[in-house]
Amino acid sequence: GLAPFARLAAIPGVSLVSIQKGPTEGQAANPPGGFPLLNLSPDIRDFADTAAIMTTLDLVVCVDTSVAHLAGALGVPVWVLVPFMPDWRWLLDRDDSPWYPTMRLFRQMQAGDWDGVLDRLEQALRQRVDSLDPAPPQSGA
């Protein structure tokens, strides 16, 4: 579900957008706890729409789905949450992908531990936002 992502929505400067399709896309219509989430899922007709939306985003965060591969193929920055026992494509013991230079992998350190993955992802997202935030102007120079 979406509840674990609520903490990302609380980061100043972060806006969450849902491009989820399929049986679970309705989750974005009423996010748990009412956290802010722009739901673009109803506006997506096909994969071309998904690609067009992705190219307007600063970052895509997802699990191992076609969305991860599309973002990587488009060169869109993408962070992928990877289970402890990953698909062979994600290899082992690395946090990048040899196929997609804009991809970063956030792996489970033990089976079933998504909290640890989201802790690391939240920390990395805060660092990313801080690095993009312009420094306040200096007064009295």
Automatic annotation (TrEMBL):
InterPro entries: Glyco_trans_9. This is Glycosyltransferase. It comes from Azospirillum griseum. One of its GO terms (molecular function) is glycosyltransferase activity. Keywords: Transferase. Transmembrane segments: none annotated. The keyword Ion transport does not apply.
